[in-house]
Amino acid sequence: MLEFKRPSGTSRGIMTEKETWFIVLDENGKKGIGECGILRGLSADDRTDYEEKLKWACENIHLGEKELWESLLEFPSIQFGIEMAFLSLKSEDPFLLFPSGFTSNAESIEINGLVWMGEPDFMKQQIEEKLAEGFKCIKLKIGAIDFQKELELLAFIRSHFSAEQIEIRVDANGAFSLNEALDKLSQLNKFQLHSIEQPIKQGNIQAMADLCKATPFPIALDEELIGVFSWNEKEKLLQKIQPQYIILKPSFIGGFRGTQEWITLAEKYNIGWWITSALESNIGLNAIAQWTFLQNSKMPQGLGTGALYTNNFNCPLEVSKGKLCYNTSQSWDFF
Questions:
Q1: Confidence class of residue 305 from pLDDT cuts 50, 70 and 90?
Q2: For the whole prediction, is pTM greater than 0.70?
Q3: d(CA 91, CA 68)
Q4: pLDDT digits (tens, 9 = 90+) for 191-204
Q5: Residue 71: which residues within 8 A CB-CB, separation 6 or more?
Q6: Percent of the chain predicted with pLDDT > 90
Q7: In terms of Cα–Cα distance, which of 330, 309, 307, 304 is closest to 110?
């Protein structure tokens, strides 16, 4: 159980801990590690048979990564854990899955600074900290406190920083009702926001399509992608809704292979995308960051979550001046 340093709020409530499973492969003393990052109440594979399926995957590890991935279609976090573990086992260093300019500390990944929901003063304090830390892009969770207070917070940021100085993304986590969503988007529009994630609850396909057509600024799908497993279903969803962006969380959508399918389809339909971690430990975050760097996206990614926990693993990942870096002088303490 990963323990949060302080309770973290979303529009779905407060989180104090997060359940995490690790798959460790051992072949003649050489180890590989993968993380199955599940978020209860949100992951498509939050099911009563989760642990049983994880046990099945371990008992059938001899089938190999490709066959297991295909057999675990409805368990995207286990798909990701298996995929990561096999990549780790094949690597010379179990934590160096994708060697690059990022892992040699020559280059970094620009990320957004995440501001958690809470009382307005707490949110204001976080915003000031992120700006002082050098972030050029911040992401605010909205939808849990009074909407007027959220508008005031956005006005506070814009009174000090222009859209050229600070990019603002907001994430509603599906908090707006269908009949008020467009009005709220119109009110938010005056703050020159980059985008809004998931303004209404997932599953309202026609309403989301209408909203994406009428919105005054870009909409990004997030939860909408959860539980959409096959290539055909993915393509149908993007064709129907035609969002401006999609947000890709490998733990939620079948690891790198599942993420790559979404990227291929998004680019086919001229839909923008970026990659986000989903509160994994540093093990999962490390794999996602290394893979993300290789995708050559110029947008800020959503990867800065490693420091949220009291009992995370020491690792080379560091955030500096709004960027995720790989400090090669730091070592891992997992094994």
A1: low
A2: yes
A3: 20
A4: 999 999 999 999 99
A5: 60, 63
A6: 79
A7: 304
Parallel, antiparallel, or unpaired for β 195-197 and 167-171? parallel
Beta bridge partners of 194: none
141 is catalytic: yes
Residues 313 and 282: beta-carbon distance below 8 Å: yes
Residue 124 among the catalytic residues: no
Tens-digit pLDDT profile for residues 92-107: 999 999 999 999 999 9
In 10 A of CB 59, how many CB atoms? 9
Q: Please name which of 221, 280, 218 lies closest in space to residue 247, comparing C-alpha atoms.
A: 221
Got the DSSP string for 138-192? EEEE-SSS-HHHHHHHHHHHHHH--TTT-EEEEE-TTBS-TTTHHHHHHHHHTT-
Active-site pick, 130, 136, 139, 249: 249
Could you count the other beta carbons within 10 Å of the beta carbon of residue 67?
Answer: 11
- Report whether 188 contacts 177 (CB < 8 A): no
Identified catalytic residue from 18, 136, 141, 234: 141
pLDDT tens digits, 309-332: 999 999 999 999 999 999 999 999
Q: Which single residue is written with the structure tokens 């956005």?
A: 154
